[in-house]
Structures
1.
Amino acid sequence: MSKEAMLGAIRRSLHRGPLPEERQQELRARLAGHPRHLIPARSRLPRAGQIALFMRHVEKEFGTIVRVPDAAAVPEAIATYLAAQNLPSTLVMAPHPELRAIPWEQRPLLSIREGRAEASDLVSVQHGYAAVAETGTLVLPGVPERPTTLNILCDTEIVVLRASRVVGALEEAWDRLRAERQDATTGGFMPRNVMLVSGPSRSADIESTLELGAHGPRRLHIVLVDDDPDALA
């Protein structure tokens, strides 16, 4: 079904025709202007405070997080986490340049395959685009170098995130995405999907009993790379 056919079906169901030109102009202005919503005061903190707030919310939402001084420390941090959780050392990893640049050879027992996750994969390593301090939320746009399947199929998801990519409020994450994802053809770009992940998958739909891994990973572990001097406490 074409875009016009789909919109026409919606208009018919609403018993109306196309929007008046004045209303269309209002909507175009709103899309172009990106009006900002309320920014909670709790996110208006110095950088070190924002990182601390982010970490608290991650743990509050049943996730785990560890800080490392640089990217070279990531393989050791991941190997230590896998051993503590009695998890296999076979990983499927996002084909992102920042992850490829990590010296994985320091931990030769880690077996890494790049690409999308398959149903048989147990542990994924994802690249964190950004994160929101006020809610402990990861922002994961779906692009070829950051496959969405890594966020859904594996029982355990590990996200490597730079501290400089942690923002205070959700509005700031959208600002960053709009500013950094542009192209000459359209003047702007949004990926097909953007996943907002706050902790591992969970549900209490059945008898109000919390169940982790209901429709995604049952474990979410973040390796936070301290690349922002202002964020160090």
Note: The chain has one domain: 46-231.
2.
Amino acid sequence: MSTQTQSQSTFAKLAPLEAVLFDIDGTICDSDPIHYHAFREMLLEIGFNNGVPITEDFFVEKISGKHNEDIGPILFPDWDHEKAMKWMDDKETMFRRLASEQLTAVPGLHKLCKWVEDRGLKRAAVTNAPRPNAELMISKLGLKDFFHLLVVGSECKRAKPFPDPYLDALKELKASPEHTFIFEDSVSGIKAGVAAGMPVVGLTTRNPGQSLLDAGATIIIKDYEDPKLWEALEELEKRA
């Protein structure tokens, strides 16, 4: 059985589908370039790395997809927690200013959202982003009325890559993991979804497809216009 056929079979088993869960950064919008710019500029201002700008590879490896509580100690191992978190808060303020002007949806997002709405499915946004960032991005993308719930990692017992945010979303939505799947773009997010017992669609917005498959993604797509996604959803509909 080909990988594609296996993926479609996995999705078909979800019928009848109850809910769809979405990460935010890199999953519904390509926000990583904005985060990268904010980190690079603000780290330059404080002479990080002897004044040499961070690279995209450094950003992907050390920062992307991680929770701020984890990023602080990685960047500033010698700083106390309060100072590191204050710097992270200032960086998020810069991100929101830039995002309010530059944020765009991942191609095909609104087509997929209509598919989800038309079937009356439950839906939640589940993110490691701070709540003000998440609310801004959802609002900028015109999805304020689309999501029934927003779950923020820092408000859960543990953030991604632990399963807690996704398990909390299922509980709030009164949905079963056997009839729910997830969209994610980061290794930590995929690991969280898999640990929560659900299939995960991995988006290669910024991260290599192989790293997403290695983390446990069921299927890899470029964006929401990818034929592989719609073939899997078609199989699911047939089963239902």
Note: The chain has a mean pLDDT of 95.
